[in-house]
Amino acid sequence: MNLITLTTDFGTADAYVAIMKGVIAGVAPKARVIDVTHDVPPYGIRDAAHVLRCLRPWYPSGTVHVCVVDPGVGTDRRILLARCAGSFFLVPDNGVITFVHRDAPIEALHVVENRQYFLSAVSRTFHGRDIFAPVAARLASGVKPESFGRATDRLELLPEEWNVVLTREGVAGRVIRADRFGSLITNIHAKDLGPLIHRPQQTEVRVNDASIGPLRATYADIPPGEMLALIGSSGFLEVAVNRGSAAARFGDLETLRIRVLRVGGGD
Per-residue DSSP letters for 215-237? Predict the structure, then answer.
């Protein structure tokens, strides 16, 4: 498999992404490169972690997923190569692999440290070009993961506060990010809701102290401008406004706590 995906916070106004693709093409001209997104908010490790989690199930085994959201570039932070569910994740060791690891536990993990696979001159500020791109290209070309460095069982994960909490009243979680429509994407997956996912009329979704009402099936279940909660296409609970922005209404997403409560009887 010579498929490589790129997820970064570089944006597209500068040449950074194109330079990475140029390095990949020079090392592995037959590799196919897919841009996932380059619009992760700058330094948005949690946002990038969610992007990786959502894309993983849809790519074939052997895909090389590269993520360069790396505020620690140039420091002693490590670069890791993880194998999860048969695919590879080339990432900085800053927690960006957290959600993938929770969904599909890491099968093998190596520190990327063998400089023979880097560009000859490695800068302190652009490891995407000098390390991630050539390593991804060589991995996609068949170089074995163990060739890049020693095995390890140590990695940075996001704090436990980003774990879903199951309570007697229901499920509690947090907002991971807002999408471009202003919908609030939470860390609560449909499977976390257990039997409640089949009994939406027995649920109440709350954002902090504000009631959003029961789970809905789709945006058009309510009039334009009204707020709702539903399970999005990737399986995660979303809080949205039909033809509007929930993010604009709530402001600081870091302060939001999401609960799905059991109401109206039933088991």
Answer: EESSGGGS-TT-EEEEE-TTSEE
Domain 160-262 has CATH 3.40.50.2000: no
Do the beta carbons of residue 220 and residue 242 sit within 8 Å?
A: yes
Give residue-wise pLDDT tens across range 39-87: 999 999 999 999 999 999 999 999 999 999 999 999 999 999 999 999 9
Six token digits for residue 23: 């390095």
Please report how many Cα atoms fall inside a 13 Å half-sphere around the Cα of residue 134, on the Cβ side: 17
Assigned fold of 3-148: Rossmann fold (3.40.50)
Residues in the chain: 267
pLDDT tens, residue by residue, 88-121: 999 999 999 999 999 999 999 999 999 999 999 9
168 vs 159: CA distance, rounded Å: 23
DSSP 9-59: S--SSSSHHHHHHHHHHHH-TT-EEEEEES-SPTT-HHHHHHHHHHHGGGS
Q: CATH 2.40.30.90 residue ranges in the chain?
A: 160-262
In this prediction the pTM is 0.92
Phi, psi (5° rounding) for residue 188?
-90, 120
